[in-house]
């Protein structure tokens, strides 16, 4: 029996999603071709073959992270899920799997990892004030 398709994003799939998220406007998702995605990755220092990018985009369509928006070549794709939606889901999964659901353990681990800069410390303090 075949395994069900994974719904989590691989590192390469996440790179592709970031291209869409980074280029979209506040009003609506951006529509990009495989070539445009490949070129954006190359500009960011990630040189992948056209066929690799096309395969990753096809997988993301199958996983319902992207959708094809036209029926003629060149095909255009756009993000179906927002950065906030995906990052929140991935973070929630990580907190559950790694920290047993404890946000406190996650925060303590983050704070133990390295010294916070004054800017980071101020940002955290502001967030805590807002949440109190």
What does this structure look like?
It comes from Gimesia chilikensis. GO terms for molecular function: DNA binding. This is Penicillinase repressor. Keywords: DNA-binding, Transcription, Transcription regulation. Belongs to the BlaI transcriptional regulatory family. The chain is mainly alpha-helical and 132 residues long. It folds into two domains: 11-79, Winged helix-like DNA-binding domain superfamily/Winged helix DNA-binding domain (Arc Repressor Mutant, subunit A); 83-131, no CATH class. 59% of the residues lie in helices and 6% in strands. It contains six helices and three strands. It has helices at residues 11-23, 34-43, 50-62, 83-99, 103-113, 118-131, and strands at 31-32, 66-68, 77-79. The protein has a three-stranded antiparallel sheet. Strand 2 (66-68) and strand 3 form a beta hairpin. Helix 2 (34-43) crosses helix 3 (50-62). The longest helix is centred in the last third of the chain and has 17 residues, at 83-99. The radius of gyration is 18 Å and the shape is elongated. The N and C termini lie far apart (50 Å). The mean pLDDT is 91.
